[in-house]
Amino acid sequence: MDKPRYRNTKQRTALLRLLGSTKTHPTAAWLFERLRVDFPGMSQGTIYRNLAILAEQGLLRVIPSGKNSDRFDADTSAHYHVVCERCGRVDDLPLPVGPDREQEAERASGYRITTHRLDFFGICPECRKTWG
Which of 17, 71, 76, 131 could bridge to 90 as Cys pair (CB 3.0-4.6 Å)? Predict the structure, then answer.
């Protein structure tokens, strides 16, 4: 089944541009606060709908960050993340990503593996300074 086609909007273009300009893996609220300066009539619902459309189109990645709000990443290349369990911060993790894990998963499960996601969880350096 083909993916639905969506017309390109100024808000969606600005959202993707903003997301691509940062490496902080922001939340929808962070994106909304910055975009409403240029689009004062825009609602948070518009942000969430456009994030869902961009994710469906494969133009961004949604990163569930545990008990905190989801984070978003415009870098759709294969890479891992590390998530802070205290503040929800998400950082890219510079570990090699190779097909070996997918082949191992296929052998172990019997599934035909098409992709994988692997996230690590811990306490970020800033929270470690504050909380020990």
Answer: 71
